[in-house]
Design brief:
By secondary structure, this protein is mainly alpha-helical. The chain is built from 10 helices and no strands. The chain starts with a helix and ends with a helix.
Length: about 180
């Protein structure tokens, strides 16, 4: 379904066709779940938050403006719901020695993150849980959902420059976390 298809379905839902929302749910549910479960680290909580996200999206659909595509708008709702959940839980990211993370070269970070094996994927998933929510969101959306830095900036409510810097630093932090886990 393309962006124009999303717009058509949104118009149908806003026009009173409540069943049309199922098309949006079907298209985005797994992607939103992927982001949320990486943020909260718990499948049951993620399922609840995804449901909350879609209820909020449905009730606010008439306020959606095409300043960002529907997927980014939905990710922003999911991100905010997950962030509020984490704040209630008082979840704190693992402290990372920033000087040590900065000492990792780009090549070393790339090599660590690109060596894809089953154990490396498990290490990567574990390392992601130790990053701050904004970093987890940026990494997930950029690398796993292949979203642009502009879209990520919209979701996080920040600038493209900030997202670029966040991605750069988060890659190094992930590399350090993975190296320390070995």
């Amino acid at each position: 379904m393309a962006k124009t298809d999303d717009a058509r379905v949104i118009q149908q839902v806003v026009g009173g066709d409540v069943n049309a929302f199922a098309h949006l749910l079907e298209r985005y549910e797994a992607k939103v779940y992927g982001l949320v479960v990486r943020l909260v680290g718990n499948e049951a909580e993620a399922e609840d938050l995804v449901q909350e996200t879609f209820v909020q999206a449905y009730t606010r659909l008439s306020t959606y403006r095409e300043e960002a595509d529907f997927g980014s708008w939905l990710y922003r709702i999911a991100y905010n719901a997950a962030l509020m959940h984490l704040r209630r839980q008082r979840t704190v990211a693992l402290p990372i020695d920033e000087r040590l993370a900065e000492s990792i070269t780009d090549e070393e970070a790339d090599r660590t993150l690109n060596e894809v094996t089953e154990s490396r994927i498990a290490q990567l998933e574990e390392a992601l849980t130790h990053l701050a929510p904004d970093d987890r969101t940026a990494i997930t959306l950029f690398y796993l959902e292949e979203r642009s830095t502009r879209e990520i900036a919209y979701v996080l409510g920040t600038t493209v420059t900030n997202v670029t810097t966040r991605l750069y630093r988060a890659r190094k932090r992930l590399s350090l976390l993975i190296k320390n886990a070995q």
